[in-house]
Every structure is written in structure tokens, then in C-alpha cells.
Amino acid sequence: MKKGYFGDFGGQFIPELLMPPLIELEEAMATILPTEEFQTRFTNMLKENVGRPSAITYCPNLSKDLGLDLWLKREDLNHSGAHKINNTLGQGLLAKMMGKDVLLAETGAGMHGVATTVAAAMLDMKAVIYMGATDVVRQAPNVNRMRLMGAEIVPVESGTKTLKDAINEALRRWLSDQETTHYCFGTAAGPHPFPTLVREFQQIISKEARQQFMDRNAGRLPDVVVACVGGGSNAIGMFHNFVPDESVELVGVEAAGTGEPGCYSSAPLDHGTDGVLHGMLTKLLQTVDGQIEPSHSVAPGLDYPGVGPEHAHLHATGRGHYVTINDEQAINAFKVLSRREGIIPALESSHAVAYAIENKDRLQGKSVLVCLSGRGDKDLGILDQIL
Ligand SMILES: Cc1ncc(COP(=O)(O)O)c(C=O)c1O
Fold this sequence. Notes:
Elements: E1 5-6, E2 9-10, H1 19-31, H2 36-50, E3 56-58, H3 60-66, E4 69-74, H4 84-97, E5 102-107, H5 111-122, E6 126-132, H6 133-138, H7 140-148, E7 152-156, H8 163-177, E8 181-183, H9 194-202, H10 204-216, E9 224-228, H11 233-239, E10 249-255, H12 268-271, E11 273-277, E12 280-284, H13 309-317, E13 320-325, H14 327-341, H15 347-358, E14 367-372, H16 380-386
Parallel strand pairs: 4-14, 5-6, 5-8, 6-7, 9-10, 9-14, 10-13
Antiparallel strand pairs: 1-2, 3-4, 11-12
The structure holds pyridoxal-5'-phosphate.
């Protein structure tokens, strides 16, 4: 396999001026990540600050309702409320040990922005967070959290004012501030080495979940593992250690948007074509001329027209199976999990839960392990308008 590629996808499609920090980062991955100092400090932070290992939870009521065994991997229980912190503490510590003092990040739902701000505060660094102006309004509680913990928030007014535009502007900022600043990319996408680096920090999800599931199920593996896919970091973390287990079906859930004919979606694997965005060759929602199309999802963290290259590869090889769930189905899952199990999921994670609900006939009697990537407190404002 070519360096930085997953099959045909990946690479480093970036301006020449961004090569030095990417080379510096790749070198740091080779020299700093394997050291005992890094590994010990990182493991301690995950344990003491994040609360790892996160639990797996059996859902007795919903399992009975649906006729299957539903298990959740509880990334929502992590400090700061989502899987994002596994990555930001890893990248933050790496950047600190590289001698950087600023963590720059983009954010959609605000969870990555919050997690980056937490890492910066813990490591005595400064956080600068780029966020689409639309998301600043949709995810106000997270904006307040970031401000409280000392982040500088930069609202982005260009394009659709969502995640894609925030990444564009953050990459521009990195170009000028690369000496002092690490770009703490929030998902398993972007130019090499980010997809590999982010997977490295997120694979702990499946490392723990695989063992926890076997411990609770007399050594058996789950039949199906499910995760929502925005850029792809919780899903690649949830899939990674199950990829060699051929009996385990891996299902990635993309956002279909409203689901109406011709609507904008956030489902490049299901509806996209090959193209280049944010430094990677991957599947994209684009016009025949290669212009990026607007994306939409009720879940801000899924609202992205591209996807991490490893998912494009798992899709192309058939090892991963990628499906769509629309806004209404996700909102239904949000309500159902809240009422039946007392767990309020993030709207992003609700897409993965909805897969089990909508496919219950096909899944009868099977064990389904869903990555609950985050908690839904941040979404109560959006739902006030809908419920
Ligand atoms: C709770 C939650 N889940 C999932 C996602 C989607 O991101 P990814 O595909 O990188 O896991 C986000 C993004 O903000 C999120 O906040």
C-alpha cells in the first residue's frame, strides 16, 4: 500500500507550504508516540481525566421491544461528553512534547472544540477554535463551555457556515502559524498522517469494547458493530479491532438529511464520487464539475460532504457496509433511547441507534453493539424547536 493511502484513497493534496508541519508531525509520531513517557502520561490522562475504560451497557427494554440484543459502547460517559477527547488528549500531549503552545481546531457540533479546549487547559496551552457561524448558533451550550475554559472562538462566515468552511479557515490559519501551533484535526480525515494519527488515538474504543463484549458474552463476538460516520473518527475507532473478525458485520451510518428526494445529505459514501477535499482523495458530495455540494444533517457533527479515506477503502472493499438514516429516524431514536433506557444520546449517535430500530426485522435475535459516540445535552436546544 502506498504511504498515506488506504487502497486508492488518502494522500496529501495540500499546498507546498503545509508540507513542513505535516513532515514534522509524521516524525513526531515515529519518535515521540512510542516513548514510555508519552504512553504513560497518555494512559494516565485517559484513566484519571477521561474516566476510561468507558462502560458497555446492555439495553434490556429496547432489546425486548426490538427482538435483538442491543449493547452500547458508552463514549457519552467520557469527560466532556464524547469520543473526541481520546484524540484531543493524544494530539495535545504530542504537540506539547513537540514544543508547540497553541492547539488550533475546527469544530462542527462543538464536541471536538470542547475536547480540544479541555486538552489545552490541562496541558497549559492556548485553544483557538474555528466554528461555522451556523453551528455557533445551533450548538450554543458548547460555545459557552469553550469560552468558560478559555478558548478563543472564531466564527466562520464563509460558504454554508458549517464544518467544511471551519476546516478551510483553520487550515489557512495553520499555514501562517505553524511554528507555534499544532492543528488538532478532529476526525480521521484530512491529509496524511491525520487519518492514521486519529485512528491510533480512537482505536481504544474497539480495543475495550471487543474485550468487554466477550467478557459479558462467554467469549462470543457481536454479530453487528454499528457507528455513525461524519468524518469517521468514532466509526474507525469502533471498527478497527473488529476488522480482522470476519464474522462481525461493520455498519457505518451516514446522515441522509431530510430524506426527501433531491435533498442535501451528508452521505458521500452512499451518494458521492471520488474527489479531493481538505488534503485527501476520498468520496465526496460534489457536482460533475468537482464543486463541493452543500451538505445537511440535523446532527451538526455529521454535516460534512467528505469522509475519512479509510472508510472509503472499507466501503470499496466491502469490509464495511455503509447505510443512511434520515433526520426524522434519528430524532425518533433520540426519543426512544431516552424514554426506554434513560440515556439521552447525541443526535449524531442517534443515527447509529436508529439503524438498529429501523432494521429490527433483519436483525432479529442478533447481538448489535452500537457506539454511543456522545451525549445529547448539547442538542436539547435544537430539539426544543422540533419536539
Ligand atoms: C457525538 C458525536 N458523534 C459523532 C460525530 C461525528 O464525527 P466522527 O465521524 O469524526 O466521529 C461528532 C462530531 O462532532 C460528535 O460530536
